[in-house]
C-alpha cells in the first residue's frame, strides 16, 4: 500500500541534468494528469485522468512518451511555460494559437522548445481543454500510483500556480516520424451528436422521457467541470425513486431530481443514488469534454453489442 500512496510515475533525470518545467502563468486552471488511478473503485477511489483522453494520448505519442505519461491539462488557454533545458513539446486538444517567445507556431502539435524559451497558449476559439506534453514526461510524485489531480476527491497534486517548477523525466525514446499536418485536431461545431447505450436504469423512465432524451437538443451548462457536464433542456421525470447507491461508470447519464441530465467525466464519483438512463460511448465522451458552455448536444441511442 505504501508504494501506491507514494510513488514516482516517471523516472527523473540524473541530478546533473535535471530539467525543470516552470509555470510562468497557469491560466484559469492547469493540472497534471496521467493514465489515472484505475482499478481502485472498490476502495472508493475514482480514476481521474485526462478529460479528453485521446488528445492527451496523442500529445504523449508525438514526443515519444508512453500514452499515459504525466502531462499538463489546461482549461481555456492562458498557459505559459518555460523549460530549463531543450525538449520536444506537443500541444493538442482544443485548437489554440501557440507562441514561442511571442512568435506564432504554425504546427504546435510538436515543436522543439529551446532552454529558456517561453511557450504560450491563447484561449481556444472553440473547445475547452488543451494538453501539453514534454518529452520524458513529468516526474511527479504519485498518490495511489498516479499524479492526476482529482478535483472531486482532492487526491493528487493541487492545481498549478505561477512559479511552480515541475521536474521532467528522462527521455526514453525519440519522437516518432509523423506528418504533423495529419495530427492536427479540429472540433465539430453546431449540434454535437453523442452516441450512448440505454441502461442500467432506463426502465424507470417513461417512453415519453426516453423519447425526450433523444429528441432534444441540450445545452451545456456553465457549471460543468471535470466531474460532469450539466445539460439544460426539458426536464425528465423520475418520479418517486428510492435507489440504493450503486457504481457510477465514466460517461453515465445521471438524472437528478431536477430532471436535467448530468454526464459524468473523469473526476466523477464512484457511486451515486440517482438513476442512470444511459452511458455515453468513450470516443464521444472525449468530444463532450471539449464542449464549452452554451454548446449544443444531442443523444443517439446505439443498439447491438
UniProtKB/TrEMBL annotation:
The Carboxyltransferase domain sits at 42-305
Under the heading SMART domains, the entry gives: AHS2
Keywords for the protein's UniProt record, in alphabetical order: ATP-binding, Hydrolase, Nucleotide-binding
GO MF terms listed in the record are: ATP binding; hydrolase activity
Keyword Ribosomal protein recorded: no
SUPFAM superfamilies assigned to the protein according to its UniProt record, in alphabetical order: Cyclophilin-like
Q: Which Pfam families match?
A: CT_A_B
Q: Which InterPro entries match?
A: CT_A_B (IPR003778), Cyclophilin-like_dom_sf (IPR029000), PxpC (IPR052708)
Q: Is Nucleus found in the keyword set?
A: no
- NCBIfam families, per the entry: urea_amlyse_rel (TIGR00724)
PANTHER family, per this entry? 5-OXOPROLINASE SUBUNIT C
Question: Which protein, by its recorded name, is this?
Answer: Carboxyltransferase domain-containing protein
Organism placement in taxonomy: Bacteria, Bacillati, Actinomycetota, Actinomycetes, Mycobacteriales
Amino acid at each position: 500500500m505504501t508504494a501506491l500512496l507514494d510513488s514516482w510515475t516517471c523516472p527523473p533525470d540524473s541530478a546533473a541534468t535535471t530539467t525543470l518545467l516552470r509555470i510562468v502563468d497557469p491560466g484559469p486552471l492547469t493540472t497534471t494528469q496521467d493514465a489515472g488511478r484505475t482499478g481502485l473503485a472498490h476502495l472508493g477511489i475514482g480514476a481521474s485522468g485526462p478529460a479528453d483522453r485521446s488528445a492527451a494520448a496523442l500529445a504523449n505519442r508525438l514526443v515519444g512518451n508512453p500514452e499515459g505519461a504525466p502531462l499538463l491539462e489546461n482549461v481555456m488557454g492562458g498557459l505559459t511555460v518555460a523549460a530549463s533545458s531543450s525538449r520536444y513539446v506537443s500541444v493538442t486538444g482544443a485548437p489554440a494559437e501557440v507562441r514561442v517567445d511571442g512568435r506564432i507556431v504554425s504546427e504546435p502539435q510538436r515543436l522543439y522548445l529551446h532552454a529558456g524559451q517561453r511557450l504560450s497558449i491563447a484561449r481556444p476559439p472553440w473547445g475547452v481543454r488543451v494538453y501539453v506534453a514534454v518529452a520524458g514526461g513529468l516526474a511527479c510524485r504519485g498518490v495511489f500510483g498516479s499524479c492526476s489531480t482529482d478535483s472531486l476527491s482532492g487526491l493528487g497534486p493541487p492545481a498549478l500556480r505561477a512559479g511552480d517548477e515541475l521536474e521532467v523525466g528522462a527521455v526514453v525514446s525519440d519522437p516518432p516520424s509523423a506528418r504533423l499536418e495529419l495530427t492536427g485536431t479540429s472540433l465539430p461545431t453546431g449540434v454535437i451528436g453523442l452516441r450512448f447505450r440505454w441502461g442500467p436504469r432506463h426502465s424507470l423512465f417513461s417512453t415519453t422521457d426516453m423519447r425526450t432524451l433523444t429528441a432534444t437538443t441540450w445545452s451545456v451548462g456553465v457549471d460543468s467541470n471535470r466531474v460532469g457536464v450539466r445539460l439544460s433542456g426539458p426536464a425528465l421525470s423520475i418520479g418517486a425513486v428510492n435507489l440504493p447507491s450503486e457504481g457510477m461508470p465514466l460517461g453515465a447519464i445521471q438524472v437528478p431530481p431536477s430532471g436535467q441530465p448530468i454526464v459524468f467525466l473523469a473526476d466523477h464519483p464512484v457511486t451515486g443514488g440517482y438513476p442512470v438512463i444511459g452511458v455515453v460511448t468513450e470516443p464521444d465522451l472525449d468530444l463532450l469534454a471539449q464542449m464549452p458552455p452554451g454548446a449544443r448536444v444531442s443523444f443517439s441511442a446505439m443498439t447491438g453489442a
